[in-house]
Design brief:
- Helix content is about 75%, strand content about 0%.
- The longest helix has 25 residues, at about 95-120.
- By secondary structure, the chain is an all-alpha fold.
């Protein structure tokens, strides 16, 4: 995927009325805030068990944070996959939690690299 397919910078800036400083702040939050760390997501999703509703809620909450941040930044592939996993964790859809987690991890890494490049450009 091309960088624009991972994060649409122009769309993200337009969403924020071209406020470059706010876009930078959102990128920095995504890159450095503990709520968006891939290791946290992996651990919570790995531990998610339908027989333990609290574990499902914790994993869904983490995925929800990632989804929301990805939407704000217009990292659309990551946001879309996170939404799918969130629905599975919330019991609204069925699917393979581990394969979705792995797909999100790949997209997260690509998104993070792209955002680091965008941050340097801004």
């Amino acid at each position: 995927m091309a960088n624009k397919d991972i994060v649409n910078k122009e769309e993200g800036l337009a969403f924020l009325d071209n406020d470059t400083e706010l876009y930078k702040l959102l990128i920095e939050s995504f890159l450095f805030d503990n709520n968006f760390q891939i290791e946290t997501m992996e651990n919570l999703v790995q531990q998610a068990n339908p027989e333990n509703p609290k574990s499902m809620v914790a994993a869904a909450k983490c995925i929800h944070y990632i989804k929301g941040a990805a939407r704000q930044l217009c990292a659309n592939p990551l946001a879309q996959e996170a939404e799918k996993l969130e629905k599975i964790l919330n019991g609204k859809e069925t699917g393979d939690i581990i394969s979705k987690k792995n797909k999100i991890k790949t997209l997260y890494i690509q998104t993070k690299e792209t955002l680091e490049n965008i941050l340097q450009e801004l």
